[in-house]
Amino acid sequence: MPYTYEYPRPAVTADCIVITREPVPRVLLIERGNPPFKGCWALPGGFMEMDETTEECAVRELEEETGLKVDTIHLVGAYSKLGRDPRGRTVTTAYLAIADEATAATGQDDAAKAQWFPIDALPPLAFDHADIMRDAITTFKHLTL
């Protein structure tokens, strides 16, 4: 059913942060294959479809971009800072998945690469993903104590 609104609407995205339980935890990042931030590292994620929840979007985007499937995710937070995405007004919801260890992941869809990084040696991140990562690490620590 088409809709016409007098007021503009923001786009909605979801991101999925995967952190391992290894002695030195690792985080799965993707290298962006398209603008904006082409060639930069980012969290796996993308735009929500009209027939899915943000949770479903986060799980789908993780699998589409890395080949990794997860069953359980935990809410990290919602991010709506103005200017967080140069393509336009975008609100994201971020989720955390915890893996026992790093498993094979490959860049797929619009991700040029997928790679695991030690949690204490992350590269600069696109968008506001450094802010999201800080919150995800806090959530990870609370869930794994």
Helix percentage range: 10-25%
Helical/strand content category:
alpha+beta
- Nearest-angstrom radius of gyration? 15 Å
Number of folding domains?
1
Strand content: 25-35%
Residue windows where pLDDT falls under 50 for at least 5 positions: none
Query: Could you give the order of the helices and strands?
Result: EEEEHEEEH
Number of helices: 2
Could you tell me the mean pLDDT? 96
Gross morphology: globular
What is the annotated CATH architecture? Alpha-Beta Complex
CATH-level-4 superfamily name: Nucleoside Triphosphate Pyrophosphohydrolase
Strand line-up of the largest beta sheet: 4-1-6-5
Question: How many strands appear in the DSSP assignment?
Answer: 7
CATH topology: Nucleoside Triphosphate Pyrophosphohydrolase
Distance between the termini: 47 Å
> Strand count, sense and closure of the main sheet?
4 strands, mixed
CATH class: Alpha Beta
